[in-house]
## 1
Amino acid sequence: MLRKKSLLALLLSLCMVVGILPATVFAAGAGMPQNIRWAESPKSMVQWDAPSGGGQYQYELRLKLGETIIDGPDLTVQRYHLFNGSLMTEARENYTVEIRARSCIIVGEFPNEYVTSPGEWGDWATLEGSGGGEGPTPPHEHSFDGWKNNGTQHWKECSCGEKSEESPHNFGEWELIYYDVNTKYDVCERQCLTCGYEQIDRYREHQHYYTDDWSSGSTTHWKVCYYCKEVNQDTVANHTFGDWTETKPATTTEEGLKERTCSVCEYTQEETIPVHTHDVHDKAWKYDDTNHWQ
Ligand SMILES: [Zn+2]
Ligand SMILES: [Zn+2]
Ligand SMILES: [Zn+2]
Ligand SMILES: [Zn+2]
Ligand SMILES: [Zn+2]
């Protein structure tokens, strides 16, 4: 009797376990996003289907490479999501997409909707292959705003990672920023005429530069480089003086002064006029102690 009773109890508990088991399995699968797949284009877009059973859901996504989270977590109420394509440097098959869902009430319309009364997050669902699915391919028009660049080229890039107009920089002329007196090289800059990328070269062979200014000594004038101060030997020449101008006449007691100016460099040379002595005159001249006349 006792034996029969315990057997009955065992059967009863077994029935309960068997009865509960399918319900538990169903609960684990329920609430999980279905059929996660990569979109045909753009390459960083994933799509998925809602958990079975209807209702409104908010989704959380993350993109992993191995165990490292590359992008996300991102939240959405759509059933597609664009990961940051520029972070995806490898083939997308190498990445793992994980999405989980929670029931919620969505208020308002895309893109101004918001979520209230969120439930508990379900389990993470992972991407398994691609293709198929009930969801429509979401529209995506590439938008290529502004230039991106690196040291050698420029391009435009959509948020999905698609690149356009990729080409090498289109550099203008080198322009001097300054002459480095320590290295004796010109430090120059040039800009890409398309994207504005600035390239600097600190070791451009120095190009002499001359202004209108001349340097001068007592007999010659020359030009020096504005930056390195080196004398340009091709410009060294004797002054080209104009006529003497008497700036102070000599008297019989004091020396006078005269000057002349180089028409090229404007160097002015000054010389004294000796004290006047009347013995330079011939007999036609008359004179007294201070003056002479004819
Ligand atoms: Zn795009
Ligand atoms: Zn450029
Ligand atoms: Zn120079
Ligand atoms: Zn001169
Ligand atoms: Zn005289």
## 2
Amino acid sequence: MITPEELLTAAKELETQLRTWRRTLHRHPEVGFDLPETKALVKKALTEMGYAPQDCGKCGVLALAGGKHPGKTILLRGDMDALPIQEESGEEFASEVPGKMHGCGHDMHTAMMLGAAKLLKEHEDEIEGTIKLEFQPAEEIFQGSLDMLKNGLLENPKVDAAVMFHVLAGMPLPVGTVLVPGGGITMASCEQYHITVHGKGGHGSMPNACIDPITAAAHIHIALQEINSRELDPAKFGVFTTGRFEAGKTSNVIPDSADMWGTIRTVDPEGAVSEQIHQRMTEIAQGVAAAYRCTADVEFSDHCPCMVVDTPLAKNALTYMTELLGRGAMDMTVLTGGKPGGGSEDFAFVSHEVPTVSMFLSAGNAKEGYVYGQHHPKVRFDDSVLYEGAAAYAYMGLRWLSDHKA
Ligand SMILES: [Zn+2]
Ligand SMILES: [Zn+2]
């Protein structure tokens, strides 16, 4: 098998190509399942490398490397979708699409996966089993992973282990550091809520003839905070945030309704905490709405479970990443104490099906001016780490298969 040094050198030689892929994607961000240009770029690149990429689900792409020698199958995943936000990064290759931005770094992931695909194709004879490459849409809306799962992601060949990386920006970490978690829950579940408060609109001069949904919604917003501060077990993690609050169109009209959208995150695999939040959120919204003569509809959607990392696979990953990167591989539990983070990731659906490890790659050191985190309109990522990411994906696949011969 190729040595870690040789693999890193080969990956470094791809650097110009990696940057070109990443920056092309960055200029043309696409969101959700609607990724025609992104998917075309991925399929073209894979085909040129000698792969036979296949569609999976609404907008996913799969490609197989190896399969010449008997062995297990490992899944490597990169997501491809951007966010519906306006970019303010100031990069010369910033988004050319108004209102869309690769603000989570999925353009980096796609480029890293293409780099891994290239490296693996060049060393295909050394793959002791099969490496399945997954290019996933719609991560940000927590639907892409599930859609690909429902469309045979883990079959033909059957997947035995699964790996993902996510880039990180805005942390005081040396650029290029791979963070490997311990086992257990490493990321929170997430789901959306939508509260609609119905009143009765009318002229702003005559509130007495109306039922003001904005006042009721404002009281609901404040009242919901009591769930966190007074009702949830402080030892249990449960957080929700209303990130969008909309009502009315103009200053002198009381609208008919007001809307609030938000997210709920927990780290309870049994779901009891989110059930408690569902119940109390519904009761409080409807109760407060009634107190102000309104009604409220409360809906929950787009659920994504907690990320569960497989302990033996995480131990393997720490060993392999240390072989590849030396001190550039870091045990994440040193930073977190093994506590899960509040972020969420829809690859969690896969983690409930097969042993999974989800790692991070530091791609923007806050001390070097990369101060903004993912999802911020000003976030920037240091794409000098792309070659390491490509090598890390490829090495995880090659090394795990050689370590776990069937
Ligand atoms: Zn994101
Ligand atoms: Zn992301």
## 3
Amino acid sequence: MAVKTIWDQKRIGVIRKVTTSTATVTLDSQLASLSLQLNGKTYPIGQIGTYVLVPVGRQVLLGMVSEFKKFEFGENGKTKSHYEMIISLIGSVKNGIFERGVSTFPTAETPVYILEEKDLAIAFSVFQRFGFSTGRLSLFENERAYIDPNRFFGKHLAVIGSSGSGKSCTVASILQKVVGFPDTKVVILDMHNEYQAAFPKNSQYLNITELELPFWLMTFQEMTEVFVNSSDEHAATHITVLKELVFQAKRLQNPELKNVLTIDTPVYYDFEKVRSRIEALDSEKSGPFYGKFGRFLVQLDTKLNDPRYDFMFKPRLYIHSASFAELLTKMFGPNGASKITIMDMSGVPFDIVNTVVSLMARLAFDFNFWNISRRECPILLVFEEAHNYLSTSSDGTQAARRTVERIAKEGRKYGVSCMIISQRPSDISDTILSQCNNFVVMRLTNPMDQNYVCRLVADTYPGLESLLPSLRQGEGLFVGDAVPMPLRIQMDPPDPEPASADIQFFDKWKRKSEPTNVGEIVRRWWNQERC
Ligand SMILES: Nc1ncnc2c1ncn2[C@@H]1O[C@H](COP(=O)(O)OP(=O)(O)OP(=O)(O)O)[C@@H](O)[C@H]1O
Ligand SMILES: [Mg+2]
């Protein structure tokens, strides 16, 4: 009996048909159990997302299973069956080095082999040199998954998945691997105050409502969205007058800059004076603006008198232009003091979240735009719950979307990168997601979002649709140029976890807890004190 070589033992089938990016493989008939024993390990055959090898000349092509079918047919009065799988040809190994894409194609009858754990080392050899691993490969539990962190952080990325799929934990886990470096610079826009718990060291926590984000940092576009109601019949007048008065006020307050000032220069001015002037114009009987600012003033005063907006409209610390540098130092810690800045947005009123995000993102972008050593200190901006403010739907303000779109398009040149996190990717601006070079896709159950994500990464991850709903908690599909090939990774759990853990309803209901202090709830509610 002929001795079986290692390749004979690894063989699982032959190619029947080839297109430009896929091949159809018929499985060898003795593999009806759909598994193969090799070197003491059992490898499943035909599972979506598993890998196979196809030697062609001096190269070995790497394929990923994207479809699996069983065919039944009659022969000599008996029902027989065979299995077929479609594989996507995703890369090739030449002289021991893995490359994405395929230039030589197999022909019919080319044998196909299973990929063993040890073969993976070749695919990872280039990526392993960074020593940056985010978790274990789901299909090879003993193998760690290595990614290229320069590409991952540097070219915009998105983390998407249904609520509870593990996005925040994934982000915390990944960032915990870089927080110890001396010059890491990450700004997290944290909508629910989750991340503070995950970064007890090397981070600074800023509660936006305590920090103050003075109104004078807003661009005129942002101001318009906050104060002008576009459906008001006098909206155009409101915009023109507001622009003129704000510009005048800025010039008056900052005479030394009067030749370079624009309407968007972030310098202090007296907003109360602008308001009084508008009121005077509105009540000037013979003037052109008589009675045109009634509703505008009511809306303006509602915001100015609401204590929830004090952090913006009634600043106490930042009441002169020179304080701008102080604020930027606090936010971006340019002296390497804080590696991760957590901006707690949980206390920001819902109708102004959009403006605040726009402002924060723009400040980060402009900070590096005007920084001559920007290449030395790149900033990663993390947008949590991005569907809330980066959506394309027409309701609500669009300032944040426009700002982040600009960063998505130009940020790379100025060392500003975005990490978009969302449970509703189909709601997010196409311009932003299409600029992302890497995706971490977690369990996704909504069909609209599934379709959307499949369209985004279809050519690199065929068969993705069937996988999306079945991913485990904390399991992510990495697609993009930071991974040698599309990878299914069980993420390392974050340590410590962000404050986002699932609440165990059943356990909580079973156990008698302390009586709820309703008086305390009311007090916090009235005082807007989040816990
Ligand atoms: N890698 C992991 N291993 C094990 N469990 C995990 C992992 N990642 C997340 N989990 C668990 O999943 C739960 C939800 O995680 P997380 O808060 O990150 O979800 P999410 O996708 O951010 O949800 P939401 O969209 O509602 O913010 C947590 O209880 C966490 O313990
Ligand atoms: Mg979350």
## 4
Amino acid sequence: MASRLEAVYDWFDDRLDVDDASDFAGKAFPAEDSYLLGEVALFCFVVLVSTGVFLAFFYEPSTTAVEYEGSVARYQGQEMPAAFTSVLNITYDVPFGMLLRRMHHWAAHLFVASIALHMLRVFFTGAYRNPREPNWVVGTGLAGLSMFAAYTGYALPYDEFASTAVGIGYNVAGSIPLVGDPLAAIVFGGSFPTSATIPRFFFMHVFLIPAAIAGLIAVHMAILIRQKHTEAERDGDVVPPGSSRPAADGAGVDAAGTGTEVADGGRAGIARDDDSIVIGLPAFPNQAAVSAVVFFLTMAVLSLLAGFLPVHNIAAYGPNDPASTPSLIMPDWFLMWGYGFLKVVPSWMSVDVLGVHISSEFIGGLLLPGLVFAGVAVWPFIDRAEEPEHFSLNPLDRPPQTAVGIAAMTFVMVASIAGMDVLVAEILHTSTAELRPYLTAALVVVPVAAGTITYAVLGGFGDDDSDDASRSDGGEGDHD
Ligand code: HEM
């Protein structure tokens, strides 16, 4: 029996180099909880694709008027766009339709949230530095695509609220100097909303963008496997389980019970500052078990959210009505900062340069968000490390970088509050016109203040101890 199994193994090994794959089974995953955020994002993507496939069986990407025959009494017998009626059907008449629609919705939110948190973990621990800059840039692309995925999905039910919000995107796209009008016509299928908009968005939402995300995730993972994870600084030299030999340069600490993986099969110790090897759980079976737990926890959270929290109530909004505009329009929380830029950039900022019109809508809606993304993408080349760095850093030991990170987070938060200016004005019993200059000023002042305070609290002004400490810990490496 055993020899038959070996023969089968050899057959596959000849063709697929399975031995190489079993090397991967020994790849080490540092046992850090915050390193699981990327996995949460990954599992959300899996849930998004699987629930999306279910929804696509019942969704009709068309604005052709059809008679509604479903169970929402208010609309029975009415002629409404097929896209809208099909989402009503999914929600109220298709078995498990409401649950899976809600799961798709909450998975989209958790996807973006986990990407943002994952990105913050990578940022604050300096894991973007040499040699991981390419993966940081790929990640930035993934963050942008995840937002486009959500935006295009938002339009699909073709209800009054969503189509008005999506129309804002049409105006922003049209505001791009020189190429705006043709580009908006290509993406939106003519001047929004036309009968071509929904089929085009459907194609982008279910195929183009997920395929691009899947491709980039594959590149992201391939780079990760090739480069290995960063690892938190070790407390001391490490003696692998079952070995009594200390590390070459000193007494070791016992790593028994951590599933330590070492390069030479577990015999020799590893010096504290040896970054040629990662200490952590082997991919199989230990990390696979942890990942399975993360997967089921992600599913459990999404099921709970879907079970208890309703999503975008299209029956209440009704089908798209070109003749009316809902009183309060706001995008989802993760697009709110971009909407905030649109609100705070004053119309007098529109200029004509060499006969080309640069509108305030373009500045707020595309230029500023574009600059934020560009800033994120080039950051590892600003905070450059000349030599490869494989240990992650403590954010408390890096006042400048941590201050920049806190300032950037505050900037996005203030911009998001500006996006909710109608609500803020209501709470403060004032008008949005009166509020706006304050929001514009806050967008500059609050992040600068937050960054400066962070820098001061971490000893950036004059306290050299923290810097020296991190360097002597072997973490900081050579920086420009
Ligand atoms: C679809 C979105 C994404 C998925 C599924 C994903 C997945 C992952 C996973 C599973 C890991 C390994 C475990 C971990 O460190 O969490 C990882 C590492 C990494 N990710 Fe992402 N990620 C995504 C987006 C991003 C973004 C937006 C950035 C930054 C802009 C980024 C930058 C990185 C870097 C630099 C590493 C290596 C970190 C290290 O070695 O410590 N990723 N990613």
